[in-house]
Amino acid sequence: MAYPTVSAPYGLKPVNLIGGQVFAGATRQFPIASAYAANLFYGDLVKLTTDGTLVKDTGTTTATPVGVFLGCSYTSPALGYQLFSQYYPTGTVASDIVAFVCDDPDQLFKVAVVSGTTVIAGVGRTVVGNNVSLVQNAGNTATGNSAVAVLSSSAATTNTLPIRVIDVVPETATAADTYVELIVKFNFGMHQYNNATGV
What is the pLDDT of residues 73-114, one digit of tens each? Predict the structure, then answer.
């Protein structure tokens, strides 16, 4: 058995860019509306709304993300000073909430494969080049991490599926052709920067 073991989904984690370009940790800052009523976790898909603020992209078989949420900062209403947080707690009231988003359309991410909700599943190398759907699990408020994953049974050539499989992750394979993690990117036209209709 390979090491390390993948025991649960963890959202989308930036690794590098198409063509082997290095991910240097660059992010873009977007505002989150005060009292926005949803948790945003590290590794969640997010999108822009018509007022220019950021919200969670809850899509599964379709999605229009601007990128992946990598944390936020805001002035704590309880403490009165600026906090930097792994996740945005739902209903936070502050006038200066800023999200840090990995928004490069060429970004590659590592993601876990599940059979339904959070049960890790394996796929063969034949998924490479296909599109897959997302599984939107609730994140962890203790760690701030997402639990978004991709669905093992969804691999297809359907052009509206939001995620394109670029490669498998051999280091965590559970058998010769059973991979529980994939390298993926946003399917072209799904990312808000590549979507001809805009927000």
Answer: 999 888 889 999 999 999 999 999 999 999 999 999 999 999
Q: What is the DSSP letter of 98?
A: E
Is the confidence at residue 197, as pLDDT, over 90?
no
- For the chain, the first-to-last Cα distance in angstroms comes to 45
Mean pLDDT throughout 160-173?
A: 97
29-33 long-range contacts, CB within 8 A, separation 24+? 29/98, 29/99, 29/100, 29/101, 30/54, 30/66, 30/98, 30/99, 30/101, 31/97, 31/98, 31/99, 32/72, 32/74, 32/88, 32/97, 32/98, 32/99, 33/97
Q: Where are the domains of the chain?
A: 13-21+105-186, 28-102
3-class SS of residue 155: coil
Which one-letter amino acid corresponds to residue 44?
A: D
Provide the 10 A C-beta neighbour count for residue 90: 13
- Region class of 18: left (phi > 0), else alpha (psi between -120 and 50), else beta: beta
**The token pair that represents 120 in the structure block:** 């890790």
pTM of the model: 0.95
Which residues have a Cβ under 8 Å from the Cβ of 198 and sit 6 or more positions away? 192
Q: What is the pLDDT of residue 1?
A: 47
- CA 93 to CA 119: how far, in whole Å? 35
